[in-house]
Protein: Galactose oxidase
Organism: Mycena metata
Amino acid sequence: MTSTSRLLTGGPPGDPTIDVFDLVTESWASFRTTYTPTAADIQAGVTDGWPYPRQLCNDATIQIAHNKIMMYIFGGDHGTTSVGCNLFMELDLTTRKWRRLTGYVRPPKHDDYTCPGPDLI
């Protein structure tokens, strides 16, 4: 990816394939990203080696920062929760590797005020 490229995701942001549109050549390219869950990620609900169930994430906030080197995704709905999640992910665009910064894929069994969803009474 060059400084003239505009990063656009191909499909939902939870997909491991990222599509890039180059503004100079006016052409599309794709690249695969990787993710290796840590023990803390697994405790946060990551299963099957990818943070988003079914590689799906809708209605998330996406931001590119740090001289267009990092992409951040926060929240979103992946279809396995009633309200959404508070997952905060970072993609290093040079190494093409994801890492979970904080949050849960699904709310924990015990209430956590940082997670979206109805409170259990």
